[in-house]
Design brief:
The chain is α/β, with parallel strands linked by helices. Helix content is 37%, strand content 23%. The chain binds flavin-adenine dinucleotide.
Length: 402
């Protein structure tokens, strides 16, 4: 029996494969494409990885694309209004931002160089294929991203408050923005959000811009028009809704870095059942986006996928039998220690902020100590949700700092 089968070579599947390999558990990774197709494809996301995710990669001996220019150490936060609510906070534990078309192939290479097996599937495999693969393994872990293998893992209605996208997305890599390690986080009520981050890419250090458009609002056309023509309209939206970001842009040089360097779409926030019994008698466990897909608004999907992969690897390495009871116990740990707080936090932020959150942001605008603390919380989603979901706790924290 060839150990654990893992479907999907995103950050969740690769973190799991590398950690199992490190813990001495045999694992085979089934991937939809090879490293070359992954590196030449369309921009898949614009991920900022927290210090916790970076620490896991460090422990694996997989530190890639280190460059101080893509370590975000400051946040410039703004909510449009008259006057705007604005503050700048320090990120004590900087986020690392690298193009996943560079990072994931590097992680694949780490896994194979250390003796790991990657099987490249020539078609997009389905539940029947997962079942066939499972006959070689003691357990299947499905980390196939947000398409998931939906027949195996139905939507969990109790944990999925939305049945349609709450934002439409545009993301692109741009030339023409002054280099900076600052994360520009701009909220425009009733319109959506505009983010800018530095990112290490095959073009070197450039800027990524993400537009989160409330459906039917004024940002939505940016998520639907030809990306090659988006720059002028995006610049106008930035000038109106994110003026501090506009100051960093040289209009003459503001353009996409390449035709593949943009994405458009929408995500329906979905939590799925995490455990399925396959016809082979084996069990399949979903992790990462294959289990829970959140809107990228709070930038936590990849970080949560990495955290859940780590928890799953520890559970697996502790030994079987890898039955339904094992899978449910792992699912509960992943929910409590990583995925649950992120999901509830992200779903809350898709709605207009409640009064206690507005109070926190207003305090951050007047006291740098509060601004820094807010940014520290964002890097630790479990502690963050414990505070944000409890107005009394939050008010005590603010009172102690002002
Ligand atoms: C614009 C944008 C910005 C984002 N920003 C952030 C951020 O700042 N921070 C953050 O943490 N997250 C962010 N996210 C979310 C993050 O990208 C995802 O949550 C994360 O990449 C999910 O990783 P995964 O490994 O679970 O799935 P994926 O990255 O989707 O990987 C799954 C892999 O499995 C393959 N696959 C699919 N089906 C099969 C199959 N049946 N068999 C074999 N292989 C298969 C796919 O080709 C893919 O390579 C962002 C997302 C977007 C769109």
């Amino acid at each position: 029996m060839a150990g654990i089968g893992i479907v999907g070579a995103g950050i969740s599947g690769l973190t799991l494969a590398l950690r199992l390999q490190q813990l001495g558990v045999e694992a085979t990774l089934y991937s939809e494409g090879d490293a070359a197709s992954m590196s030449s494809g369309r921009l898949p996301n614009t991920v900022a990885r927290t210090q916790q995710t970076q620490a896991r990669e460090r422990e694996l001996g997989c530190e890639h694309l280190a460059d101080p220019g893509c370590l975000m150490d400051t946040v410039s936060f703004s909510i449009k209004g008259v006057p705007p609510l604005e503050f700048t906070g320090r990120i004590a534990d900087p986020y690392h931002v690298a193009d996943f078309r560079l990072l994931l192939p590097a992680l694949m290479d780490d896994f194979t160089r250390r003796g790991g097996e990657i099987v490249v599937a020539d078609t997009s495999p389905d539940a029947a294929q997962v079942d066939r693969w499972s006959q070689r393994h003691e357990l299947m872990v499905v980390a196939a991203g947000r398409r998931s293998v939906a027949e195996l893992f139905p939507r969990d209605a109790g944990r999925s408050p939305y049945d349609s996208p709450q934002r439409r997305l545009f993301a692109g890599l741009f030339h023409g923005i002054r280099p900076s390690t600052t994360f520009a986080y701009n909220i425009s009520p009733a319109c959506g959000e505009i983010f800018r981050m530095p990112m290490m890419t095959r073009h070197g250090l450039v800027s990524s811009i993400v537009v989160e458009a409330i459906p039917g609002g004024p940002f939505e056309p940016l998520t639907l028009m030809d990306p090659a023509e988006v720059a002028p309209a995006l610049l106008a939206a930035i000038a109106e809704h994110a003026p501090r970001l506009r100051e960093m842009i040289d209009p003459a040089g503001f353009e996409l870095t390449g035709p593949e360097d943009a994405l458009q779409g929408a995500v329906t926030p979905t939590v799925r059942e995490a455990v399925a019994k396959l016809p082979s008698g084996r069990v399949a466990l979903a992790i990462g986006d294959a289990w829970i897909t959140n809107d990228p608004l709070t930038g936590q999907g990849a970080n949560g996928g990495s955290a859940c992969a780590w928890i799953a690897a520890e559970s697996i390495a502790a030994g079987g039998p890898y039955d339904v009871g094992f899978a449910h116990a792992t699912d509960e740990r992943m929910w409590d220690e990583a995925a649950g707080p992120v999901t509830m936090w992200t779903n809350m932020f898709l709605q207009p902020p409640p009064d206690h959150i507005i109070g926190l942001l207003a305090a951050a605008a007047t006291r740098v100590e509060v601004a820094d603390r807010v940014m520290g919380l964002f890097g630790d989603p479990v502690r963050n949700w414990a505070v944000l979901s409890n107005p009394d706790k939050l008010n005590r924290l603010v009172d102690a700092l002002v």
